[in-house]
Automatic annotation (TrEMBL):
This is LysE family translocator. The keyword Membrane applies. It is found in: Cell membrane. Keywords: Cell membrane, Membrane, Transmembrane, Transmembrane helix. Coiled coil: none annotated. The chain crosses the membrane at residues 41-62, 67-88, 146-169, 185-203. Pfam families: LysE. It is a multi-pass membrane protein. It comes from Hirschia litorea.
Amino acid sequence: MSYQLALALIAFGIVSSITPGPNNLMLMASGANFGFRPTIPHMLGVALGFVFMLFLVGIGLVKVFELFPASFTALKVISSLYLLYLAWKIANAAPLKTHREDEHDGSNAKPFTFLQAAAFQWVNPKAWTMGTTAIAAYTLKDNPSLGVLIICTVFLIVNLPCIAIWTFAGTKISQFLNSPSKTRAFNITAAILLIASLYPAWFGH
């Protein structure tokens, strides 16, 4: 891989990882509602789950979509419905004070686990857009396998710090969520932004 192509790939990885999308908005909401440390499994699930998906896309899954275009449309529909469900869950999440009390009353309010976050990448429209774009634009024509490994390595390095920024931002926002009404307003706003993040997947082309 040439120096210029490597720089372009790194820039693409950083920009696509740090810009708003379902993962980042959900991590910000989790950071605000649960704190940074409890959200770490969620962050790791996003970072490693996306790289695993990227690897599978690179070794041939994208060919399935080329042969059966309807399968990609079906995936987008399922992804969108699931994101709408998650937006509803976020909008109706209990206030921050209630989450803290949950530690003592046995409630099941908790952030995403590692496996939940990793599995979510398969129904995340932005993750699919990032993955297919990266493979199409930066795979080495003369050595595709090496190109896929390089792309996965770059995203493994740049993705986690980028998404950690969103989680950290959420923890800072939580300092201002000192009442149930403010927390609810924040969660509803996050839910609306999550729904808005579907726009590029459907109308961005």
